[in-house]
Every structure is written in structure tokens, then in C-alpha cells.
Amino acid sequence: xxxxxxxxxxxxxxxxxxxxxxxxxxxxxxxxxxxxxxxxxxxxxxxxxxxxxxxxxxxxxxxxxxxxxxxxxxxxxxxxxxxxxxxxxxxxxxxxxxxxxxxxxxxxxxxxxxxxxxxxxxxxxxxxxxxxxxxxxxxxxxxxxxxxxxxxxxxxxxxxxxxxxxxxxxxxxxxxxxxxxxxxxxxxxxxxxxxxxxxxxxxxxxxxxxxxxxxxxxxxxxxxxxxxxxxxxxxxxxxxxxxxxxxxxxxxxxxxxxxxxxxxxxxxxxxxxxxxxxxxxxxxxxxxxxxxxxxxxxxxxxxxxxxxxxxxxxxxxxxxxxxxxxxxxxxxxxxxxxxxxxxxxxxxxxxxxxxxxxxxxxxxxxxxxxxxxxxxxxxxxxxxxxxxxxxxxxxxxxxxxxxxxxxxxxxxxxxxxxxxxxxxxxxxxxxxxxxxxxxxxxxxxxxxxxxxxxxxxxxxxxxxxxxxxxxxxxxxxxxxxxxxxxxxxxxxxxxxxxxxxxxxxxxxxxxxxxxxxxxxxxxxxxxxxxxxxxxxxxxxxxxxxx
Length: 546
Ligand SMILES: Cc1cc2nc3c(=O)[nH]c(=O)nc-3n(C[C@H](O)[C@H](O)[C@H](O)COP(=O)(O)OP(=O)(O)OC[C@H]3O[C@@H](n4cnc5c(N)ncnc54)[C@H](O)[C@@H]3O)c2cc1C
Fold this sequence. Notes:
Elements: E1 3-11, H1 19-27, E2 34-45, E3 53-62, E4 76-79, E5 97-100, H2 104-115, E6 121-123, H3 129-142, H4 174-184, H5 201-217, E7 221-223, E8 228-234, E9 237-243, E10 248-250, E11 253-256, H6 263-271, E12 276-278, E13 281-290, H7 291-299, E14 316-318, E15 324-332, E16 335-338, E17 348-351, E18 360-369, H8 381-396, E19 403-407, H9 408-413, E20 429-431, H10 440-456, E21 466-471, E22 478-480, E23 494-496, H11 507-524
Parallel strand pairs: 5-6, 5-11, 6-7, 11-23, 19-20
Antiparallel strand pairs: 1-3, 1-4, 2-3, 8-9, 9-10, 12-22, 13-18, 13-21, 14-15, 15-18, 16-17, 19-21
Helix pairs in contact: 2-11, 4-11
The chain binds flavin-adenine dinucleotide.
Flavin-adenine dinucleotide binds next to helix 2, strand 17 and helix 11.
């Protein structure tokens, strides 16, 4: 029988010790009384700056009687849940499935379909990894945008140039499947137990290519530089996916996982009457600080301890009228990047490499944009709002793919001095007055929240802090409506999936949604229900998920 001890405090440095003596230290007896220990979870408890420590969960076997054992406050011991298996049998009647998008949602949908013996065709409007990396570098180094392949479009989706944080609040059993897959294809195995797993953009790029090669070996077909432009239905039955290369690909199921930036695809779906609704998102700026400043503020006297990685933060400021400003997608040791995908529009975001060693720290500093702020009943009004402000920022950057920028001090003093702190942003920051680069209601919320954030993190509003605009693609501005069997409420055979469809808000939740869609397709093809993956995800869980 295996036991699980949870919330066991460990001093900084003790995390490198073997687990048997750690268990003997807490539970008594000799180290040999404990066998096959596995670290299941490790989080950092930084609530008390003078006593920063780890909290760990360890499963193990023991020859000792552990009932009634005195434990440190907050620690508990129980029977460990049995490890599950994700294996399923192939279906006999295999549907023809086309998956749109090779982001985490499309990729994991394809992987799970392959487990059921269903061999999908994946359409990807952008290029494969090596070509895509060259195209993105042309934007970051020379300010040249390729609207067909950029940090939103191409192999691996938006996840490829992401920060690679694999956190999600959804608590879904398929998260383990996602993490184990990343580990199998080259990610650091520690992501299986770290409370805030992170792989970094460098690693996720390698994983994406290896996953694709494995999927191809198992029968999936990938078509790069191929965009879904329409689909054909006859008497309410889906017949084919239509691409910009002029092909009609016969299919029984069409998985729509195009991400939140596929604006022409959203337009096509609206035109075809696919059921959708407006969805709230968030908008604002990227804020960047020297990493040391954040580390000192977060770690206090433990600053510089070798057990500590570059510090993160999560800030929320609740405002009047149900408004809120908050930090989003915090990237310790990362860099701010240009993430535009449309000509004449600027979009900023953040990423980091596995080592998180840039010396900078950044996060989105955003305010909630409700559907009432869209100013129109049009389903795509949120998308038009994003586009408008992205274009305003392009002009503010002198008609370039630089980013309009301002120091936090100038922003709070409402005075554009033109003096900019150091930044990691590529291709270049352009001094501007950010008051002209954001909707008034977003501006007001950020101005109100920043002093409160300064109270929480000393130096947050210092002269070294810079703001860059505009962080507009935080999540999808629409949701495609689907039934309990995963299909569109308006069109049988269409399966809305992932972030663009409004069912995920990050890499892991998008991947989990892809898996759920695969389960629905397999169930329709007659597969027995795979019970562990049936858990529903509440839409509130995926709004700002990482
Ligand atoms: C810079 C950056 C940093 C991020 N950091 C993190 C992070 O640290 N952690 C995290 O969890 N999330 C992060 N994200 C968000 C994360 O990348 C997305 O939530 C996730 O990739 C969404 O997955 P998806 O598969 O739904 O869509 P996407 O990853 O957007 O993939 C959609 C794919 O569909 C393709 N496509 C679109 N339309 C068509 C069409 N008509 N035909 C064919 N192909 C089409 C696109 O080219 C794209 O490749 C970050 C995003 C960015 C941009």
C-alpha cells in the first residue's frame, strides 16, 4: 500500500536531499523503513518573507504503522490514490477527421485521436518550425511582419513562442497526460511535480517538432501553409473542409482549433452562420522590470538563495462597478516580444527560455473588457475593438512594428517625457504617450491599480519600470457554442476547440480541451467512454489561466 504525505514543509536547500531520510525525519524510524518515494508536488511557500520554504507532497511505501503519527501543522497523511493509465483501444469504424490548427489544442486532439486509431489530417496556415522561426526573427530583428507566419500562426500555434508556463487552474485529470507527453518529447521531468511547471519557448519548439514527427509516424498528416477557408455541408451533414489551396478534403468531423487570432476564420464562421457569442477578454500593456528588483521584493532576506528561481508575482486590484485590473502571463527572466499577426497592427506579449536568465521580468498588466465595452451587438465586435487599438499603437510607433512605450512614473504623472527605462523588447520601443494608445476605461483602471500594486511589490512603479502597448490578445473575443457532445450547436460535425473557440486560456487548458474533443469524436465512433477525462471545465476557469 502506498501512502501520500502532503504539505510537508522543507527548508530551502533541503529539496536536494534524498526523500527517505526526509520521511524518517518527520515520521520517525530509519530511512530504510521508507521505500520507493516519489516527489508528487513541490510548491514555494513565500507568504512569510522571513521564512520562505518549500511545501512538498511525497508518495511512498512504509513498513511502519503510520496511523495517529504527529505531523507538522498543515501536513496530512493518507492512502495514495492509484496511478491511472491513459490507454484506450482503437475504434473499429474510423471517422475522417480534419483538425484546423497545430497549436496545443489541435496537437493534443490529434494525439488522442491517434490513441483511438483515428488518423487525422491537420491543416496549418503557417509554416513548419524552421521556416517559422526565420519569419519571426525577421519581425523581431528587422521589424518585417509576415502576416501568414508569425508568433501566432505556424507549427505549434501561439504556444511555440509562448513563455511555456504549463500552469492551469482547471484541475482536469488530462493535465497529467499533457505533462507526461511534454516530458516524453524532451521537457524537464520536474514539470511533473512542480506546482508551476515551465518549459520555456526554446524547449517547447523542440517538443512541438518531435511530437509532430511522432504523430506523422502514427498516421497523422500535416499540411502546412494550408488555411481552412470554408466547409461543405449537405442536408445538415458535414462533407468536406475547403482550403485556400483549392482542395476539398472529405471529412466527418472538422475540429476548429484556430487560436484567438484567426480573425478571417472567425469572419468565415460568422458568415456561414456558425453559432457564436461575444466573450469578455482583457486588454492593457506589458510591464517590465529588472528581475533583481522583483526578486528582492518577493524574497526579502532570502534574496540570492541558490534554491530560488527568478521570482514571479500575481496581482489583482478589484475596482468599482465590477471592474478589475490584474497581472497576467507573468514571465520571470523573460523578454517582451512583438506578437503582431496583422499588417498595420502592434501586439505585445512575453516569453522566456527554459533558463529564465534574461535579467528582466515582465507581465501583462490588463483590465477586464466586458462585452458591454464592445459598443456593438456584432458577434465580432470585440475583435474589431482589438484591431482598432492595435492599429492606433502601430501609428503611435511611427507606422512601425516597434511598440509605443512609457516609463511607469511618466504614466502615473500623466507626462510623456520621452525617457525610457531599459527594456528587452524587440524590435524596438518608441517613446509615446500611452494615454492615447488605450481605451479610456482601460487607462483609468490601470492608473488606479498601479499605486496599489506598488504597495504590494516595492519598486513596482519605480523609474526602472517600463510599459509597452498594447497587450490585446489575452484570450478570444468570441466563443463558438457547442453541445454536450462537443459539436457546434448550429452545425453537426463541427467541433469548436481550444482558446480561439473560447474554451481554453493557455497551453495546458487548450491541450486538455483538444483531448476532450478527441474523446467526443471517439465516443461518436463507438468508443467506450474514457471516464477519467469526462470532467467538465467551467468557462470561468479558463479566462486567464496562466
Ligand atoms: C507570447 C505568448 C506567450 C504565451 N505564454 C503562455 C504561457 O506561458 N503559458 C500558457 O499557458 N499560455 C501562454 N500563451 C497562450 C498560449 O500560447 C495559447 O493559449 C495557446 O497556444 C492556445 O492554443 P490553441 O491551440 O487553442 O491555439 P493556437 O496556439 O493559437 O493555435 C492555433 C493554430 O491554428 C492555426 N490557424 C488559424 N486559423 C487557421 C485556418 N483557418 N486554417 C489553418 N490553420 C489555422 C494558427 O496558425 C495556429 O497555429 C502565450 C501566448 C503568446 C502569444
